[in-house]
Design a protein that fits this description.
Elements: H1 11-23, E1 30-36, E2 42-47, E3 52-57, H2 65-77, E4 85-89, E5 94-98, H3 105-110, H4 115-132, H5 145-152, H6 154-163, H7 170-188, E6 192-195, E7 204-205, E8 213-214, E9 221-224, H8 227-233, H9 242-258, H10 267-294, H11 305-316, H12 323-344
Antiparallel strand pairs: 1-2, 2-3, 3-5, 4-5, 6-9, 7-8
Helix pairs in contact: 5-7, 6-10, 7-10, 8-10, 10-11
């Protein structure tokens, strides 16, 4: 007997159940939520007598399975630990995948896992992806100036206007556009490699073999070499002391150089790449996390906004080319932030 919720309330879950048991004829004993992400995708864990599988539910009117399937195959051929695809139903928007387990890096760290060992494994996988990515037999979009700017524009639209209730006057929008140009130029001058785009503690799974398992790679692009390092070391869900991050960056850069990757003329240039790339990512994330509430009704990410905001404040204070951003954040954003959080975070 499959354990399910009320299928009248969740019709797509009923479709998943039917696909597994009637079309694939799998002896499923339990079907339960495994995770959801910041898109319209969600995942179920389908348990059998002696093992479990994962079903990706990607509504076809909202999500395209093609990029996930193409990139999963490409990364698997590089020897990276990604889910294998066991069955596909493009019309319904379902994938049946191998199960990489239920312990992501964030849970492992919270349970006392050794960050040095976990992050060393993550960097090994990242460098393998960056080095091998040049030969992937899959076409990835470029992280172009247009895409970088489009991401930053989520910040005024959803964070400033919707969350902080700030009027988007032309002068303010011009300031954001100038900041976006600085950040885009800093990203485009870096070595361009395959970029996962969300290489962080909730998408890295602790596995006994070939650690880590890597999830949520379907939005991969070709872009700045520091982008995934920002996701990893300036994680929106776990914060590390600056000195520890600097040590990890030095170790990464040494290993990347040994692997033949171009990582800046010196450590200072590489660190500037990293910090400015972080500002671009975190301005985007401020917008996305706000949008998830105001457009999609997902409140869970609002509690992570203070961490993301602090990353932006810290970096903006360190680099003269970010003086305009520092002024905007300290004079306009910070005075309104606590009240905005109090209004919506329960």
């Amino acid at each position: 007997m499959v354990s399910v919720t009320d299928t009248a309330v969740d019709p797509r879950r009923a479709l998943v159940q039917h696909w597994l048991t009637h079309e694939l004829r799998l002896p499923i004993t339990r079907l339960e939520p495994a995770s959801a992400d910041a898109s319209f995708r969600r995942y179920f864990r389908a348990t059998r007598a002696d093992s479990s599988l994962i079903v990706m539910d990607a509504p076809p009117d909202r999500e395209d399975l093609g990029p996930f399937m193409a990139i999963a195959g490409a990364l698997g051929r590089l020897g990276l630990n990604v889910p294998s695809i066991l069955a596909v139903d493009v019309q319904q928007g379902f994938l049946l995948l191998t199960d990489l387990g239920s312990t992501h890096y964030l849970a492992a760290l919270n349970a006392g896992g050794d960050p040095e060992a976990l992050y060393a494994d993550a960097v090994t996988a990242l460098i393998k992806m960056q080095v091998g990515g040049s030969g992937l037999n899959v076409e990835l979009p470029m992280y172009s100036h247009e895409l970088l700017d489009r991401e930053v524009q989520l910040f005024p639209e959803w964070f400033l206007q919707s969350h902080l209730q700030i009027n988007l006057l032309p002068e303010l929008l011009s300031t954001v556009s100038r900041i976006s140009t600085v950040l885009a130029r800093a990203a485009l001058c870096q070595t361009q490699v395959i970029v996962h785009r969300d290489f962080h503690s909730r998408n890295l799974m602790l596995t006994s073999d070939a650690n880590p398992g890597i999830l949520d790679f379907q939005d991969a692009v070709r872009g700045a070499i520091t982008y995934d390092l920002v996701s990893l070391y300036k994680d929106c869900y776990v914060v590390w002391p600056r000195e520890r991050v600097l040590g990890w960056l030095r170790d990464y850069r040494a290993r990347a150089l040994d692997a033949g990757l171009a990582v800046g003329a010196d450590e200072n240039e590489f660190l500037r790449w990293f910090d400015l790339m972080g500002v671009q990512r975190h301005l985007k994330v401020l917008g996305i996390f706000a949008r998830l509430w105001y457009r999609d009704g997902k409140a869970g990410y609002l509690r992570d906004l203070p961490v993301v905001l602090q990353y932006v404040l810290d970096a903006a204070a360190m680099y003269p080319e970010l003086n305009e951003l520092h002024t905007l954040m300290t004079d306009v954003v910070v005075p309104r932030f606590a009240a905005a959080q109090a209004r919506v975070v329960r």
